[in-house]
Specification:
This protein is α+β, with helices and mostly antiparallel strands. It is built from eight helices and nine strands. 38% of the residues are buried.
Length: 333
């Protein structure tokens, strides 16, 4: 007899793998260039790749320590909210497959990511941490890059000074694999440095030729800092990357590229681990301190408010009880 996922959530998260996606034979014709150019206000300086073996070990250890293998006494589907486990894991679990249309457009690709890994991880987080019931994945409004770029945030509505707004903990950035290839993602994840402009000509600085992966970093930095949320995931469904910006927003730490059918750890395991780390739950990964210039030294800030278009920065604090030993070594610049 097959189990329900909550009967042994740990084994399910470890063993369930994303199903192979049917992309179709044709590819939509789109302008792949993101509308993100070098700007003087950005203070991103360094990308630190995380070491594969150690990152995998931290994820596996966290799963063993914080995801139970005993029954939670729950069904796969929450009848009240409709959220459920959606990634099949035969022959051990009875989670039925869901029928999705061929992902021959960006809109359909988004549906695959939303209804399979994200829906499953949402159900898992809410079972593990019932206090997160108010949190969910929310799709951001379209911007100038909506044909090739989409952002989903793990967030909740909060009331502040008679206004309602979203408080975000992590962003998931989606691009189609016919735009962002695995080679592009590997370049995105490599050790690299970004340098600001010392030239008095902002026009020269803004018009410097940029690569696809550089523009992606610019886009992510802008999106994350706007939400005061440094944790992020980049996905094409076929491949996944997990990252976080430093407290001062001058550096980023980024995982290797994982395939959709990765195992030990699985994509579901990595997503759950990274999301719980972003929420500050015990045992999560801790962002290392980076001794680089502050993100916004007031005497050097030259961007106008219309250029910056961000709210106040919120410094991240580690909650009480957090295991401060779980910072993975990284390759220095």
């Amino acid at each position: 007899m097959a189990w329900r996922a909550p009967d042994n959530l740990r084994f399910y998260i470890q063993e369930a793998r994303l199903v192979s996606i049917n992309l179709g034979s044709s590819r939509p014709s789109v302008d792949a260039a993101l509308h993100a150019l070098p700007r003087r206000y950005r203070k991103l300086r360094a990308i630190h790749p995380l070491r594969l073996a150690l990152f995998n070990e931290y994820c596996r250890d966290w799963t063993e320590d914080f995801v139970p293998c005993v029954s939670l006494g729950e069904e796969d589907e929450d009848k009240g909210t409709g959220e459920r486990f959606t990634v099949p894991c035969p022959p051990f679990y009875q989670v039925p497959p869901i029928s999705l249309a061929r992902a021959d457009s960006f809109k359909r690709l988004f549906t695959w990511i939303d209804l399979l890994p994200l829906e499953t991880v949402r159900r898992a987080v809410h079972l593990l941490y019932p206090e997160t019931k108010a949190w969910s994945f929310a799709s951001d409004a379209d911007d100038t890059d909506h044909t090739t770029f989409k952002c989903i945030t793990w967030s909740r509505l909060v009331d502040h000074e008679d206004e309602r707004h979203y408080r975000s903990a992590m962003s998931i950035f989606i691009q189609p694999p016919w735009v962002l290839s695995v080679c592009d993602l590997e370049l995105f994840c490599k050790r690299q440095s970004f340098f600001g402009s010392s030239s008095p000509s902002t026009e020269i600085f803004h018009e410097r030729p940029t690569t696809l992966h550089e523009r992606l970093w610019y886009k992510l930095w802008d999106c994350c800092i706007t939400r005061s949320s440094p944790w992020f995931v980049v996905s094409t469904y076929t491949h996944w990357v997990f990252g976080v910006f430093s407290n001062g927003w001058t550096a980023a730490f980024v995982s290797p590229v994982y395939s959709y059918d990765s195992h030990d750890p699985s994509v579901l395991q990595l997503l759950l681990f990274w999301l719980c780390s972003a929420m500050g739950f015990p045992g999560g990964w801790v962002v290392p301190e980076v001794r680089i210039e502050p993100a916004y030294p007031s005497q050097h800030l030259t961007a106008s408010l219309s250029d910056l278009a961000v709210g106040p920065l919120i410094r991240q604090h580690s909650p009480a009880g957090l295991d401060m030993t779980r910072s993975a070594p990284f390759d220095s610049i």
